[in-house]
Amino acid sequence: MELLEYVRVNEPARPGQLKRLELSLLVLAEDHRVRLAQELMAVPLGLRGRRGVWERKRRLMKDLGAPTPDGRQVTSGSSRGKETAWLLEHGPQFLADAAELAAMADTAPTDLAEDLGHLNITLTGMSQPLTAAHTERMRYAAARVRLILADLADDAYGEFRARIKETLIERLTRLASEHERLLPD
Q1: pLDDT at position 6
Q2: Averaged pLDDT for residues 153-164
Q3: In Å, what is the CA distance from 38 to each residue of 34, 79, 103?
Q4: How far is it, in rounded angstroms, from Cα 91 to Cα 93?
Q5: Cα dist. 52→5, 40, 88, 107, 132 in Å?
Q6: Torsion of the alpha carbons at 118, 119, 122 and 125, rounded to the nearest 10
Q7: CB half-sphere exposure, 24, CA atoms < 13 A
Q8: Rounded to the nearest 5°, which phi and psi values hold at 163?
């Protein structure tokens, strides 16, 4: 990872080589099933956890035309277009609802308040109008909302859930589920 950081800083004019080096490191970690390595790789890559590392690997494989282990090419094709269309149509409502939920962090139980705080950070800087450039950040926001909604279904959060408008939970559940169906496999 230190080598990758060095190349990024000192050889920025070699993006193809950088992508190949990064993909090699990601594949090596996956080949050896080193879950901890993936978590550790997230920070220098500027990502959040194993899922971010996995998404980066998939994007690099697509960019470099590398096949998946089963021999298929990674493509984003029409799913990316559908996701962008969803973002432009439903994104403003999703962001408004997610921000309303995140604003309740002060009254939430401690562990849920932390998750809501992270959601708020993710939403920060997503200004209107939304564009295709917001897609990646929207994925993070939608994933966080899905996790929070799953937590809210637990009886332990019943008292807090009762303070949230049911229509807000229903809309967020519907929108986050719609978005999830559009994500590439």
Answers
A1: 61
A2: 92
A3: 7, 26, 32
A4: 5
A5: 17, 12, 23, 29, 18
A6: -120
A7: 9
A8: -85, -10
pLDDT at position 97 is 95
Separation CA 57–CA 3 (nearest Å): 17
Q: What is the helix (H) or strand (E) element at residue 3, kind and residue range?
A: helix 2-10
Q: How far is CA 127 from CA 99, 137, 144, 161, in A?
A: 12, 11, 18, 28
**Count of other CB atoms within 10 angstroms of residue 109:** 12
**Given CA atoms 19, 25, 26, 28 in this order, what sign does their dihedral have?**
positive
Residue reference for tokens 């917001």: 134
- Give mean pLDDT, residues 6-26: 63
Model pTM score: 0.57
Q: What are the tens digits of pLDDT across the range 40-88? A: 666 666 666 667 766 777 776 666 555 555 444 444 455 667 877 888 8
Distance, C-alpha 104 to centroid of its chain = 22
Residue 176: both structure tokens together: 């986050």
In this structure, how many other beta carbons lie within 10 angstroms of the beta carbon of residue 124? 11
Asked if 66 contacts 24 with a C-beta cutoff of 8 angstroms, the reply is: no
